[in-house]
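Exercise 7.
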Amino acid sequence: MPDLATPSQIGCLTGLAALLIAAAWQDLRTLHIGNGLAIAIVALFAVWAAIGLVGGTCTLGGIGLSIACATGLFAVGVAAFAAGVMGGGDVKLLAATGLFAGPAQIVDLLLVTALAGGLLGIAVLAGAPIGPVSGAGAAVLRRRLPYGPAIAAGGLWVATRLAVG
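Solution. The predicted structure, written as tokens, is:
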């Protein structure tokens, strides 16, 4: 009997990559990440995990730890949102992506996200036209940093690592 779990899980990771790219693009254009994208990533994780349980590539304990990691990311993100440091869409996208990262990839997710976010920040400070400009008619333009692309970079790193094995 052929192993259908691995190609199916690769398909889920491909879907994750597409959703992350869509979230990054949406954030770049509008400084907003729709709830539907985070919800779709959570639903995709449920499918990925169910396939892994049936195929023997995931355990209930591993899935539970992934949920715990995502919950922790969400809790820290909510505190960052309350402090005005992160947007709500960013918090939800990072937590949803954290489901796939789990305990084995959580550090990679956060490190790649932070590095990509730092590069975005440097680019914005250097005057790169990243994201929409608020107050286009004002003499002084204030830019906000769209962090969705940085989260997408971290998530794409995790998806690639999971796909490669």
